[in-house]
Specification:
The protein is of the alpha/beta class. The protein folds into 2 domains: about 15-165 and about 370-385, 3-Layer(aba) Sandwich (Rossmann fold), CATH 3.40.50.720; about 170-360 and about 390-425, Dihydrodipicolinate Reductase, domain 2. About 30% of the residues lie in helices and about 20% in strands. The chain has 13 helices and 18 strands. Strands 16-13-12-11-7-10-9-8-17-18 form a 10-stranded mixed beta sheet. Strands 3-2-1-4-5-6 form a 6-stranded parallel beta sheet, sandwiched between helices. The longest helix is centred in the C-terminal third of the chain and has 20 residues, at about 385-405. The model is unreliable at about 1-30 (pLDDT under 50). The protein binds nicotinamide-adenine-dinucleotide (NAD). Nicotinamide-adenine-dinucleotide binds near residues 72, 76, 118 and 234.
């Protein structure tokens, strides 16, 4: 431990927060204030793919150290830990049970890279244990869980960064600057598309044996018990309602977040018009929709979402992207490029807006992680706090719910947190947790 470190122990009265937690959790929260010159001790829960990538982005900075890693899959855990040892010469403690990891007192921040159905519980437990949290997107798999996470983050006053990394990258920051300073005229509509082959799923396979070294019950966690199937496990879980929301939520939160940012909207949609269907061939394994068209009418503009799994061509020759349509110009952007297409002013024989092009962009995880670390130290508001994560997540969950209950027009009351025109939709707001897990009460 460095000598200049200001360390203190903070006791949190769980009863005052009204949280019902599992008995294994620490009964006290231990936390320190991370000073600007300190190194941030980070831990990773859920190591297979994205979480591991985010951990490596942390360790690319000189002020982050990995002190713990956890996964329910021994093989994944050991392989990823070996890579951290080899690449960064660091030897984190290893866990199969995240509750044990959260008892490790020197952890300042936890990265949550598990499937979506775990995000809420682990976030709340981590906050309760005094840790800052980087939780992957979508923030949670249901509306109720998103609401709980917002309240928990506000209560514990820790930094919670939702993994909607475009908030921290040049391309969309530039897009927002152009839109918000009126460079494309009045914003009329935002068209979003996302076409990916993976959204139709892999070929169906029968249920099988649980792989050696896997704690499958802990993978399921609060989700319903069911036999093991490889198509619902690593990576592919996102196409099953118990754990994810398909392409609509996987890409929807990222891209809809960019649409909401144009007007700094941090509320759920008041109304949605939804078409959702499974039209691609049935031998593929999935529950979520392969085709969705969703309209989100806003006060003075409209957001249109269009998604087709199983094809990869899209408008402007881009698999996914956004077209921000203004009176004077349309901005077309995705993670790697931004292109401003001005309208022509026939009276004055000139463009109505300035051209701007940047076609060599890159993913912005690094900047998002840097923002997380900086805000832990400075106490400043981070780029994607839970309110923003919730707004994006509720747009995708409400669209999915409309398609699932077969009611193409849904009205949502964001104050009361309920649908006002569908009893069936209201039944999908809150998940039923499988014992011994209970939904945190806030
Ligand atoms: N921001 C982005 O661009 C981006 C990209 C891809 C994925 N993601 C998100 O990252 C998250 C992880 O996705 P993925 O593709 O890496 O999934 P994955 O299935 O490849 O990895 C998830 C890991 O979590 C582990 N896990 C599951 N339950 C656990 C538990 N209770 N305790 C410890 N470990 C547990 C699994 O064993 C697995 O190793 C998802 O929320 C996903 O939406 C974000």
């Amino acid at each position: 431990m460095e000598t200049n470190r200001r360390t203190f122990v903070k006791q949190t009265t769980l009863a005052s927060a009204g949280i019902g937690l599992a008995s294994m959790l620490p009964s006290q929260a231990w936390a320190r204030v991370v000073a600007p010159g300190d190194k941030v001790n980070v831990a990773l829960i859920g190591c297979n793919s994205m979480g591991f990538g985010i951990l490596k982005h942390h360790l690319g900075f000189p002020d982050a150290i990995c002190v713990a890693m956890c996964d329910i899959d021994e093989k994944v855990l050991n392989e990823r830990a070996a890579e951290i040892q080899k690449t960064f010469n660091q030897t984190p403690k290893l866990y199969k049970d995240f509750r044990k990891l959260l008892e490790q007192k020197d952890i300042d921040a936890v990265i949550i890279g598990t499937p979506d159905h775990w995000h809420c519980l682990i976030t709340v437990y981590a906050l309760q244990a005094g840790k800052h949290v980087y939780v992957e997107k979508p923030m949670a798999n249901t509306i109720a869980e998103c609401n709980i996470m917002v309240k928990a983050a506000n209560y514990y006053k820790k930094v919670v960064q939702v993994g909607q990394q475009q908030r921290s990258g040049f391309i969309f920051q530039k897009s927002m600057e152009l839109i918000k300073t009126g460079k494309i005229g009045k914003l009329r509509k935002i068209n979003i598309w996302a076409n990916f082959n993976y959204g139709v799923g892999p070929d169906a396979v029968p249920d099988g044996e649980i792989p050696a070294g896997v704690d499958y019950d802990m993978w399921l966690g609060p989700a319903p018990k069911r036999p093991f199937n490889a198509n619902r496990f690593h990576g592919w879980w996102r196409l099953y309602w118990d754990y994810g929301g398909g392409l609509m939520s996987d890409w929807g939160v990222h891209l809809l977040d960019m649409a909401l940012w144009t007007k700094d909207i941090v509320k759920a949609p008041e109304k949605v018009l939804v078409y959702g269907a499974n039209t691609y061939h049935e031998k593929k394994a999935r529950e979520t929709f392969d085709s969705m068209s969703v309209t989100f009418p806003k006060d003075d503009f409209v957001i249109n979402w269009d998604m087709t799994a199983g094809v990869q061509r899209g408008p402007y020759d881009m698999m996914y992207g956004l077209a921000f349509v203004g009176d004077d110009a349309t901005i077309v952007a995705n993670r790697s490029k931004i292109n401003v297409f001005p309208e022509w002013d026939d009276d004055n024989k000139k463009n109505k807006a300035e051209e701007f092009k940047f076609l060599d962009g890159k993913e912005s995880h690094n900047e998002h992680v840097r923002n997380f670390l900086d805000c832990i130290k400075s106490g400043q508001k981070n780029a994607c706090p839970p309110e923003i994560g919730r707004a994006a997540a509720l747009h995708v969950h409400i669209a999915n719910i409309a398609a699932r209950v077969g009611e193409p027009f849904l009205l949502w009351d964001d104050e009361k947190n309920q649908f006002t025109n569908s009893a069936a939709a209201n039944k999908l707001i809150t998940p039923e947790y499988r014992a011994p897990w209970t939904l945190p009460k806030f």
